[in-house]
Amino acid sequence: MGVITISKEIRDTIIELGGTDAYKCYQCGMCTALCPWFLIDKVNFLVNRFPHNVKLGNIMASEVKEEIDQEVQELCRCVGCDSCLAYCPRGVNIGDIMRAIRRILIDYDALPKNLKDIATKIYSVGNPQGESAEKRNNWAKNLAVATYTSEMEYGYFACCLPAYDASVRKIAEATVKVLKSANVSFGLVKEDVWCCCETIRNFGAEKIFQDIAQNNIKALNQAGVTKLLVTSPHCYTTYKNEYPSDDIKFEVIHITQLFDKLIQEKKIVPSKPIKKKVVYHDPCTLGRQNNIYEEPRQILKSIPELELVEIENFNRKDSICCGAGSGGLWLDWQKGERLSDARIKQVIETGAEILAVACPYCLIMFDDSIKTMDVNLEVKDITELLAEAI
Amino acid sequence: MIALLIETRNINEASTSQGRVKDISFEMLTLAHQISQQHNYPVIALVLSNNCQPIVDEIKQYCHEIICVEDNCLENFNTQIYQPILHQIISELKPTITMIGHSGFGTDLAPYLATTLGLPLITDVFDVELNSTLLVRRQMYGGKIIAEVISKMLPAMITVRAGSFEKITASPSVNLNLSAKVTKKPFTLDQTIFEKSKFLGYGEVPTTGIDITKADVIVAIGRGIKEQKNIPLIEQFANEIGGTLACTRPIIDAGWLPKDRQVGSSGKTVKPKLYIALGISGAFQHISGMKNSETIIAVNKDPEAPIFSVAHYGVVGDVLKIMPVLANKIKELKG
Amino acid sequence: MDIFVCLKMVPDTSETEVRVDSTGKDILKVRLLYTTNEADNYALETALLLKEQFGGTVTVISVGTQSVDEILKMALAKGADKAIRLTDDLFLNGDAWTVAYALYQAISKNKFDLVLTGCIATDDGNSQIGPMLAALLQIPSAAYVTKVEIINNTKAKVNRELEGGLLEIKEISLPALFTIQTGINTPRYPSIIGIKRASSKPFEVLNATQLNIDPNKLAALTEIRQLYQPKVEAKAQFITGSDDEISTKLAELIKEKVGL
Fold first, then answer.
1. Which residues of B touch A121 (CB under 8 A)?
2. Is A172 in contact with A205 (CB distance < 8 Å)?
């Protein structure tokens, strides 16, 4: 009979870095059952083992190369969607525990290289694509959008993905179209506001996160921004919940919140019908993490002839992650191991023709999935649909 | 005096049409004559082989002098044997510049040889100016920076990047008929050298482990090629132009090509001289893996495809229609 | 088998822009993250695998300021037994020769069977230090090694990478120096227990005086005169016409770029 030995050093290090919630856990297993990975046959991801192993100090304790490789892979699997936290009877924040472990790993180059590269690029030029910081607002060059000045109402930040990636630039372009149609007073925040760093914070690059968070807050405060309008719910949740609130002199607003308000105020009147069956996918960072469930739905309902349907049992608080969270966008799970594929299957069952999303990460993941799934489905951002309808 | 080490193909590699002297040697001859004309320096070729004559025949019109060392132990390149012999020759000749190709042989030999000779060494150079000092240009930081480097003294040694100069045979500016003086050099070798290192043979990199990051030309396919049965057409084209076949993730997912062919953030990052993207729309995960290629040609039917934001040359059209026509044109050009 | 592995700390510029600083002789070193040179990581893994197979020790050695402790500690965490840092202004203001000479002086004072380095550094791209160091140590070397087999205490068989998918296979007597090509193995991650253990392993810091090095010997033989960024080609130029016309232009373009 083997006797379990506790490695105090490992345990204490993880606890020190933010893993204290491990002690709350009483091993009921609810988290494992609620984890989106549970829906994927090939994957056996036992979430409740993590708090248990932290208590024992049994994390990355092996010295066998294959076992360590395997463990790193599993540590990268958690997408930080908080599905588990939503129902945990003890309120254990698995996300915090995973971040604490990954913080040790990133310091020792023990995370996959493509994740480390993201951190390097963000640290160096402020975006995960590694493009020039000065080119951040180039996407809007031909759209006649002013740079934000303090007399404007909203400062708009398009998120790195639409700003630098031609395949999702359309979200930012549609946003501009809608804002202009409603005569909203807005301008682009300057290029010195960098990535919000939500992703790299979740995979442990805490020092870079802190560094750039301070830079962003300073830049926005100096520009005199009072209302920061963001496209990505990842930026939204990071500014709202993770940046030090005392330092922030502005309100953070997600575009769906503003559009819903403008529709209610009749400043946006969708008039062109979209005669399609549409299903809405709640992004984790907007829904579960910030309780914004109804605004996106109200926007879709305001479009004439659009039929909004729901994914039974897996909507709102029970939506599942597209797989992009915590660096998942850059990890390469094999075919048959992708959360986005599982979600698309749920979407197909609703008979929807369009999958509406409110997050650039979700858009990329689902677009990528349908390329290889032979399904008859379009993926669009809510903003694109709204821009089509006005 | 400019000395250069002639690099040769091994017997198995050399065909009648190619001869034995490698392209890099003819390229270095071009460079050597550029310098030689400016300073009136003789160009001296160093040939080490078990059979020097065929090599001498190929190069003698381009050299003032050829120094041959002939012995059975020089049949195949081997740093441990070449180095002491070259050390003897170069320390006697004292050429102002000694050039060695920045090749598989050169990278093994040059730093060792320069050290025993006490010569300054600058590696992987693509441009050379010799005035009162030797100034060369070379890449740093993976080609993101060009450096001008000087040697603090002369004589010096350089290794020359392949493809940086035209082959002397193809250079219109050079019309040489020098008919070199050929000298055979005797040499002495410490016999223990043969204990230190033994050439066992040449091998081939196993084909299962194709490393697309090392390819100079990549032909990459995406979903635009539509069906697996179209791959042989593209593969044949790739072979014609000396390219390696690579692809996007959906092709891997479909199981049409093995994982080691994937370019992108979850695959390999590549930087070939030429990247031909066929039927690739350009998901950012793919673009991040190839955007730093020297020249990018993209063929895609969607004029708005993101791939055109990084391509140098774009064709809006159907890959499957253009490829057979292009394959024929390439055959014609090759004659 | 006692193995020395030379490690270099380099700025991780593979994914970022690189700009020249105001002196024109160095890159702008702001907002760069530093890491172990890629090929050196493979060299370290090669050493650790040989140690697992044959026993012995792995010593990692690096030239630099205190900041290189980061990569040395990481190597200790992965399983190296001892670290040596060579720190002296005389080492830092030189060229490849200077660094090779400093490494030679430090390594030659020890018993070893094998010295491993990476085949190329991602910053200067020199591919010099390994064979230079071998020449100074007066041991045989092989560069761009893609396979190492230890035959017995005095002999190893290696594959070296040449051009065009060709390999050179040779037998080399030990002690020897190999410069290791990337992709030869899969470098490991350190375990947390390894990280914890690293802090109690021997760590030596040496300067030129302690190594009895004549400062004149360290003088650089080459010098960077200036750095600049290469000109970037303009973006997408569209080729139009019939399929035949397009193909003709493409074929010429391909010929121009790579020859046929």
1. none
2. no
